[in-house]
Predict the structure.
Amino acid sequence: MSDQAITYLTENRERLLKKLDEFLSIPSVSTDSNYKNDIKKAADFLETYLQEIGFENIEQKDTGGHPLVYAEYNGAGADKPTVLFYGHYDVQPVDPIDEWESDPFKPEIRNDRIYARGSSDDKGQVFMNLAVFEALMKTDGELPLNVKICIEGEEEIGSENLYDILHDRKDLFEADFAVISDSGMVAKNQPTILYGLKGFTGIEITVTGPDHDLHSGMYGGAVRNPIMALSHILASMKNEDEVITVDQFYDGVEPLSDEERKLIEQAPGEDFVESTGSPSTASEKGYTPEEHTMARPTFEINGIYGGYQGEGTKTIIPSSATAKITCRLVPGQEPDKIQQLLEDHVKRVAPKGVTVEVKKEKLSSKAYKVEPNHPLIKKAADSYTKAFEKETVYVRMGGSIPVVEWIDEIYNIPIVLLGFGTPEDRLHSPNESFPLDSYDKGMETLVYYWNSVAEEDI
Ligand SMILES: [Zn+2]
């Protein structure tokens, strides 16, 4: 089955590349209302293509913002699994336009790469998935499994309306598992399974002492200095071993297994000293920097301000001081609970003579992780390895992808991140591109994957 579809993709390569060219030529910039018609055009393109392939119930769902393209394929029958496929057709703005070597919306092939805005993030990868569905349909007369398509037009503006529609329309999006093609590999031609993402939360601490800045000679010794008080509070939250010293912060965090430590060690990574310019690395005692970034929670002070910041000296006791703190969370940690623990800690250690206010960050999310030996993940790894002829590596990421957390929260189904981007793709930057061999091998991977998971009893 797979061979025929791959032959189809080879024989139709030129035509499909032309079709991709047409899709990439539509400037579907979601953040700028001047491109509203083009957003619609990109959604129309998808609608037409899904029709040609043979999808059913195709619709541009009104989200209140840009339309979400929805479609179904139920032809595989009730005994086959159903996948929810997610991608996005909107793109980032192109400025600074002068730095582009070719028009961002006139795709050009140079150095075996397709240069265009969206070629990697995410129109190129969305197209690859659709082209594979086309190939399977044309050669087998059907798809090996049932599919629900969810391609949104607001990812680059924070997926403003996605949560609500996923939440309110469970009847539409319900599936056995989800596949997201909107990520990348750790290196070109290095198949990568991204099996974990971190969660996120934060607080802002404001310490106030006197109701106005004071003369340090007249009042120094009489009242508490808010910057000093804030420094004491912050210093009490993490120790010199990079261990977070807030009570119960690590409660529920699952221990790192030997098996996972081995996966992390095997994953190719960067030299942190070289890439950051820091004189040395610093990670939680007992963990390597790779283990800490991928699999352990973090606590960072992102900004701190208060008092006199100008040239020379100004002898004051400032009235207030503020620090902004964010944490990256791992599975087992609840953002709300972490915020509460942080607040309780700050209130408990705050010295007398100041008032302390804690503001909680609204945008919080939980971490996501799928077992690396889950059959759906194993099959993805096998499909990658077969297509790229290279052993697949497993990584977790320190960052967060909101849609992953939402699908996890609302549907509680396994999520497989099947990404084909490379670190050189320059997402969101001038000269975004995507390598042609990742395009070809990525589609081969998808053909193997869909055929093999169709046999899975989920
Ligand atoms: Zn994206």
